[in-house]
Amino acid sequence: MAETPKIVDRRSDIASIGKSVVIKGELSGSEDLYLDGEVEGSIVLNGNSLTVGPNGRVRAHIKAREVIVHGKVDGNILSAQRVELRRSAAVLGDISSQRIMIEDGAFVKGSIDVQKDAKSSPAPASVPAPQAAEVTK
Amino acid sequence: MFKWLRGGTGQATAEGGREVLPRSKRHSSALKELHRNLAREENISILDLGATSAANISLFTGRGMKVCTEDLIVASTDPDLQIKDFDGNPTYDIDRFLKDNLAFEMRSFDAVLFWDIADYLPEPLVKPVIERICSLMKPGGHLLAFFHTKDAGPNSPYSRYHIAGEDTLDVQPIPRKGSGGYYKLLRVFNNRHIENLFRDFASLKFFLARDNMREVLIIR
Predict the structure, then answer these.
(1) Which of B20, B31, B58 should one mutate to test binding to chain A, selecting the residue with the greatest count of A CBs within 10 A?
(2) pTM of the full predicted structure?
């Protein structure tokens, strides 16, 4: 069974869409959002963050300041700052962001374009170090 | 059981009742040459056709490269691709596979990481996939491919290749979803087969490895 991410505390502070909710159309807002349900259409959260929970199923293009994905996204992700794909994430679409963090186990089918912030120093994409492997040569 | 493969010395462990094969490291001369060649170029775009590797994406995007990833082996297991021809014989929907997985409008690549995919792709897909890849590459672009030798044995598992250094790969066997096992080697190419497969390319350079792999750096 997939490990449930520890994001419960954070959810209590932000707007949340539960796993039984299905939305078709444009979803937009001006606050952070935790999404564990299904969305088909588009998601625009300019200046705010979107977290797609482990049960989240998104078939939409996403535009947000920060996007964290535990579930499935079928669509392009355009982030002004940062995209995090956790180990259970599956993204079918193109990703464009200043920074991207991908955990081992995440699935990506599409292009990844890291746009450097012209104002700040370049921030390289970061990933957790691969698990230790035995050196044989 | 598989520890003799790829030079690995780790022990297989059990996870959820399933055998988990250990990761191992291997030296790659072809990767080293690819790195050297790409270092001379700018605005590089890379197509990684192996299993998604966070380390590879991090490495390339951190160097300002554009990356596209497609896991062709997982995509080839889509049951909807298995169709029947006019005579009712089972075949593959090759057009659909190419359209779903290797369609990049207005985009061409400086380098393609093909890894050992040809050894695991269903037979009807091998040639069309290589032809399509050729059309997706820039002239002078590089393709990195690995091929198992006969000595590798039929149980050589399909693996995720993490680039761990200029000439070092971290090799992680990938369990096949839902089966409890691993992808098996479908065929072994010899040098002549490989040359024929890539005959539309400008040149092939073979690298002999100490393990049961043949590395090839191919120029479009």
Answers:
(1) B58
(2) 0.81
